[in-house]
Amino acid sequence: MASVFSVQRLRRECAAILPVDPSLREKAQARLDQLAKPQGSLGRLEEMACRLYAIQGGGPLRARPALMVTIAGDHGVVREGVAAAPAETTARMMEVFLRGGGGINVLCAAAGVDFRLVNAGVAGPPLPAGPCLREARIAPGTANIAREPAMKEEECLQALALGFALAREARDEGYAALGTGEMGIGNTTASSALLCAFLGFSPEEMAGRGAGLAPAGLAHKAAVISRALSTHAAVVRGKDPLSVLAALGGYEIAALAGLILGGAACRLAVMLDGFIATAAFVAAQALAPAALDYCFFSHVSAESGHAGVLRRLGQKPLLDLGLRLGEGTGSALGLFLLEAAARIFNDMATLESGGIVLPEAEGGSGLQKNR
């Protein structure tokens, strides 16, 4: 499915991702200020609408159809005892998704979002065929990052190319927005290591419970992350994003980074999920800083460290619901909010059409009929 990327091809693709035109946000806000409401009264929905207008280069706005892309991969670091669930849980959960029984399936249905499941690097036998499944397994899980690089550079490039291809496929199918989701036992450990490497956090700050690790296991998880950073210290010091991602990441994390980059290249709105998706975003932003303009942070995860990462990035999430399931569940809710923002922009009446004037007094919040 994905074309083969060279380092040079990746650089060209990333260089082609341009920032949005900030003046378009001002134009969108002018439209919102004409709607039948006090100015700014719809808060962050207005902010989302302005950003979507800039991404799409004008209106009317489109947030539908939207596609959730949940990418799965296994991690060799689970052999260090950093996860509460066994490694085979990744494949078992994918079977649940294919039957429509996962949390992500339920929330996508509730939010009116289509669902696609991608096998980027899950261990075990082939998964049952299904209409929403994309088989693109690069390898049956990564190597153990505490001892060796997670991926070879060419494997990491293949995962990034997969993400780009998924985004372009979505664009060609007419989707207006993408959601990012993941499944992979051990991927909070890999994500923690990436966030430490890219943003300078300590392992103790980033090590969280993941899929249910007991509090007593957090010190061990932090020690494993520290060992991984030590093993790849030269790579971390070198600060080359591709090398860091290959050393410490995962197939699903690298593919998510490619999906984010590809979504930006296609001028699609990209709704990020929680902790793991944010790690993928940090890698993507290191490769193409302008990718930020196309991304929305759906929620702050209950996973330890996520709130601090968002503060470091200067981002305020849309929701704070104590979620830490992953899969794209927070992203599905965020896509619903994006659709709400688009409908406000497109469908609300204007003050002029309703013959309405606002009170002139500062701080007034009511509407008055123009008689």
Account of the protein in words:
Strand 5, helix 13 and strand 6 form a beta-alpha-beta unit. The protein starts with 6 loop residues before the first helix and ends with a strand. It has a single domain (63-339), classed as 3-Layer(aba) Sandwich (Rossmann fold). The strands form 2 sheets. Strands 3-2-1-4-5-6 form a 6-stranded parallel sheet, with helices on both faces. Strands 7-8 form a two-stranded antiparallel sheet. It has 371 residues and is an alpha/beta fold. It has 16 helices and 8 strands.
Summarize the structure.
The protein has helices spanning 7-15, 22-32, 43-56, 89-98, 103-111, 153-172, 187-199, 203-206, 218-231, 233-238, 241-248, 251-265, 275-287, 306-313, 329-347, 351-354; strands at 66-73, 114-121, 133-135, 177-183, 269-272, 295-297, 356-357, 368-369. The protein has 371 residues and is α/β, with parallel strands linked by helices.
Topology:
Layout: H1 7-15, H2 22-32, H3 43-56, E1 66-73, H4 89-98, H5 103-111, E2 114-121, E3 133-135, H6 153-172, E4 177-183, H7 187-199, H8 203-206, H9 218-231, H10 233-238, H11 241-248, H12 251-265, E5 269-272, H13 275-287, E6 295-297, H14 306-313, H15 329-347, H16 351-354, E7 356-357, E8 368-369
Parallel strand pairs: 1-2, 1-4, 2-3, 4-5, 5-6
Antiparallel strand pairs: 7-8
What can be said about the biggest beta sheet?
6 strands, parallel
Uncertain parts: 363-371
- Determine the structural class based on helices, strands and strand pairing: alpha/beta
Strand arrangement within the widest β-sheet reads 3-2-1-4-5-6
CATH architecture: 3-Layer(aba) Sandwich
The number of distinct helices, counting runs of at least 4 residues, comes to: 16
Total strand count, please? 8
